[in-house]
Known about the structure:
Elements: E1 3-7, H1 14-22, E2 30-33, E3 36-40, H2 45-65, E4 69-73, E5 76-77, E6 91-95, E7 104-105, E8 110-115, H3 121-133, E9 139-144, E10 150-154, E11 162-166, E12 172-175, E13 180-183
Amino acid sequence: MGAVATYEPAKLTVDVFLAFVDTRSDEERWQLIDGVAVMMTSPRIAHQRIASNLERLLNDALEGRAPEWLASREIGIQIESAPTYRPVPEVTVTDADVDTTRHYVDRFHLVAEVLSDSDRRDASALKLPLYRSHAPNRCVLLIEQKTVWVQVHTREPGAEWTAETLVSLDDVLSLPSFGLRCPVRDLYRNTPLASPAGA
């Protein structure tokens, strides 16, 4: 999502950031990115549909492959090696029994960022090393919303990270750890980039 405001008196610690967020309206969404509190804009409808499509596809797949995991929208994550970051990816796969009273989770298995107009691929790449450094994590997805472009970073247990880029609606998104295999078209369903559902 695109940033519209920042709060940067200095590099914020997590405690200061959380105290600041507690003073803000529940309708505001803030992330901590490299010690800077960033408020996110309301996303475009296409952005929301892509994220919703991915959440649904993952949960449908996880139900049969890994019911102990659950895909959810806009969950804050914390990474032990990155104390000045509290990002909020569009979709995150966590343990299904996560403590739902918390603002942030410290264990996740997949994160997906839907890139908005103000995001640059290299800006999202700043988060990529952090997401990949999280030991339980097996997948990072970066998804453009105005063009068909999906960058897929995956790691099987005990293996190194691999990456591929999908640029066609007919390319196949394959995430064996999550039981998901579908055409990229399914991610973009009901957006201008893909035909309506069922077409």
